[in-house]
Amino acid sequence: MARQMGRIKDGLPREAFAIAGDPENPDTWRLPHHKRSIGRALKGDLDVERTVDWDEAATAASALSPLNRGKRVPASPEEILEAANHLAGHYRKGNKSLPDILAALV
């Protein structure tokens, strides 16, 4: 099902972020983990899983860790768990091993 893109942050739609607090406020979107080609996926022209940027996904997963002092994403516990589940879904669909922090959270 194709979706229409709305607001954009850093060239990416809301769907490219593991945390998108307010869909209308890009300042609340955190943890990008898709390539810009996600726009094509949202239009139905490409499988969304092919747009995952694995380096960014690893960085996003790391930002969920309470041990990542100074680089942990500012988010509520609920947002952390939701983001962990979202990222873990990509890893599973990509047949990749979960980073330790995702395995601990999901």
Topology (elements, then pairings):
Blueprint: E1 8-9, E2 12-13, E3 17-20, E4 29-32, H1 38-42, H2 54-62, H3 77-93, H4 100-105
C-alpha end-to-end distance: 27 Å
- If you compute it from the alpha carbons, what radius of gyration comes out, rounded to the nearest whole angstrom? 13 Å
Share of β-strand residues: 5-15%
| Helix-strand makeup class | alpha+beta
The overall strand count is 4
Strand order of the largest sheet: 1-2
Low-pLDDT residue intervals, each spanning 5 or more residues? none
The global form is: globular
Helix content: 25-40%
SSE order in H/E notation?
EEEEHHHH
Mean pLDDT over the residues: 91
Domains, number: 1
Q: How many H/I helical runs?
A: 4
Task: Provide key terms for this protein.
106 residues; alpha+beta; 35% helix; globular
Gist of the model:
The chain is of the alpha+beta class and 106 residues long. The chain has helices spanning 38-42, 54-62, 77-93, 100-105; strands at 8-9, 12-13, 17-20, 29-32. The chain has one domain.
Could you please describe the fold and organization of this structure?
- With 106 residues, this protein is an alpha+beta fold.
- The protein is 35% helix and 11% strand.
- The model has no long low-confidence stretch (mean pLDDT 91).
- A two-stranded antiparallel ribbon has the order 1-2. A two-stranded antiparallel sheet has the order 3-4.
- It has one domain (8-105).
